[in-house]
## 1
Amino acid sequence: MPRFSSPVGNGLIAVDRWTEPSQAYFLTHLHSDHTQGLSVHWSRGPLFCSPITARLLLCKFKGFDASLIRDLEVGTTHTLSLISPVTGGEVKVRVTPIDANHCPGSVMYLFQGELGCVLYTGDFRWELTSERANMSKSTLLDALNGEKVDILYLDNTYCNPCFSFPSRKDAAQQVVDIIEKHPDHEVVIGIDTLGKEHLLLHISESLKTKIWVWPERLEIMDLLGLDELFTTDTSQTRIRAVPRYSLTQNNLESLNTIFPTIAIMPTGLPWSQNSPEKGAYTVPYTAHSSFLELEEFMKVIRPSIIVGIVSSSYCLIDPKHHFGEMCGVDNCSTKGHNLFFKVMKGSHGFKVRKKEGKTKVLASVQRSGVNIVRKERRGVKIEECESDFEVPIGSDCSS
DNA sequence: GCGATCAGCT
DNA sequence: CACAGCTGATCGC
């Protein structure tokens, strides 16, 4: 997880950051790598989010002070009044939450005002074969109304040409096809606490069956209005959605001693590979944009400055490297601006492990439960510290 | 005992 | 490796 120092504490707006003072806090979605520092007792200031995220938040943090929440209708522009840390005067900021098509309630935020134009995508999928993504595109272009984006904070999770995925609709059908080829098997599908609901819906509708989920997950489904398609009664279905971390090769083998079972892992990660002979299937169903989708997005936005919000040691995903040519000449400097945004950066963390020798790459679903990989690890753990991530925008401050 | 943080894992 | 997240240890209160 990212660790930040805080040399300057006058943030006006914080996005997915919760541990430092700010005048307004924005939450893109309720995945836990975006809520680090948020808790039941958090009370630093007004928290802006989508209405669905607001409901999910109160469910996740039971007892959270609901009076802090400002739920913003998605797709419309709202005006905030803040105090300039420079002049002490009023600063009006327009904010437009736009459906990010990542998980239920997820939004990007477009901030506009006299002090600049900033787009923070959060995690998003720019899947223009879907109606929803096209509505997001319309909303974004309407709100921009020709204005150039000064700073783009981009979900660069898969910002490398090696990442290519089918649409989620096609990937969902791949899952259905796999299940239909195993009519006498139990099926376990790895999911997280939020996300991939549309995949499960597609399966449920195609196969005319309910899907088992664990009790806390049923509560989420209930909140999303999907509870009729799910059950916590294993006798009602052969298909179970289980926590992703529980889908290990060992667990699959154990299940197979009881009843023939296949496991399906919906993921965009490249090191997860099919192993049908072992009953482990990986399907490229992902809630993050593929490289081509990011490229399409960049053609629309063409910001002056681009900042990736994710870092990875796996491969080069720096958006400046891949898209720098599409941006303004000055895509590194932040000189001459004055409104401080503090944003969450680094959902993949900044921890870098350097290893001697090679560790074999295995799909998580295929990996042996034995700590062979761990035993093979050698070398030194290196902590890479990033400085406080603040980007000043605007034009009337010299520093 | 509780919450926050972190190590270690998938 | 780690999309996002769990478990358990430890530390300060």
Note: The first strand of chain A starts at residue 11 and ends at 15.
## 2
Amino acid sequence: SVQLEMKALWDEFNQLGTEMIVTKAGRRMFPTFQVKIFGMDPMADYMLLMDFVPVDDKRYRQVTNTQPVPRYAFHSSSWLVAGKADPATPGRVHYHPDSPAKGAQWMKQIVSFDKLKLTNNLLDDNGHIILNSMHRYQPRFHVVYVDPRKDSEKYAEENFKTFVFEETRFTAVTAYQNHRITQLKIASNPFAKGFRDCDPEDWPRNHRPGALPLMSAFARSRNPVSSPAHQ
Amino acid sequence: SVQLEMKALWDEFNQLGTEMIVTKAGRRMFPTFQVKIFGMDPMADYMLLMDFVPVDDKRYRQVTNTQPVPRYAFHSSSWLVAGKADPATPGRVHYHPDSPAKGAQWMKQIVSFDKLKLTNNLLDDNGHIILNSMHRYQPRFHVVYVDPRKDSEKYAEENFKTFVFEETRFTAVTAYQNHRITQLKIASNPFAKGFRDCDPEDWPRNHRPGALPLMSAFARSRNPVSSPAHQ
DNA sequence: TTCTTGTCACCTAGGTGTTAATAT
DNA sequence: ATATTAACACCTAGGTGACAAGAA
């Protein structure tokens, strides 16, 4: 079985509609997809990998709310379906760089896919995951048992297991569309600290009950709670 | 067979008497020990590791030349034997973090031991290599074939091979003793660029034949030449 | 006197969103 | 209009030798 790490943070993003930047050179995901694994055979070899499947066959489009809104308005924009999805290229997979490794090694610490990068460059030759901007994707996590038997191909079907966490769904974008997503990224990603206007360490102490809860996930995620995988 | 990378740079350091800093927290080696490997079974698993053996049973001592020397003197100090070596602690080994891996993976690119760190802390619990300051050491590189047979222990003797490059010998120190070593480190280690007083990129062009050859190894090492292993 | 330790400025290396310019 | 790109300032993370202070 598998537990998603930083579930509280993923939930907060998912509630707003998670967006992930794609660039030509490749961009990491934030939050990073990381899991805790249980129940492997400690002595057996496993390959760990991820892929990304379209959530639907729609292409999205950002529509700006042009009506006058109060300052600090919450819903200045939203997603609209803009047509049928672009034809999917044969989806790439990302093997965790430690693969293959023994079950004992995978289980003894959190497995982090922080080397995984997303790109919109169809001609990418860095092995990055290729996605279409303005499309929605569902990350999937696969565990493959390395079968020592000679005719292991025959058992391929029973030698892997797939885990899907719906809270990790996201829209691929080349620039953030929802400003609240931007703010949550800035508040929770250490590499974006330069864009913060207050010290996040002070937030839990200074937090007023009525304030915008942009930082709540970050505060909570310091003691991450995991969730069981869907299927 | 194994080829040492950056051999020209190692030679230049070795000619001056290589020194490596050891610290409580652990310090990387420079030059980094890296090799190119040939002749493995592409499909077989191998473990790669390093250890460090005392070159002799001597403790060293730096003696300062107190006689008046001309400016820019070349030999202001030297090493003297200072007594018998301190009792050796059971030597640690450093497994290359990618171990175990297939021969094909080890051979397809340079294997770099840049995660290896040296410490003088006898109580170190970070898994770093523990060395005595003011003692000389010979790095050794070991290739271990992971024998798939059940009684593999019986074949341990024939399942590993050791490679020794004498030009990688060094003296462990807590502070540099030979100023020319310091200068060569500053000239060739990118992380010490802050202490340079000229642009190393310009050196090959501006190099006057009569000038001090401090940068020559760095200039040459841009097209690294390898050397065969001793044994 | 000699050796060791801890702090520091200054780097490498690379992950952020911003912004202005460009493409569609 | 909307979407994409490239350069950029500002971070994280961590590897340098210098230096002053301390230890042996």
Note: Residues 23-24, 61-62, 64, 120, 133-134, 173-175, 190-195 of chain A lie near DNA strand D (CB under 10 Å from a C1').
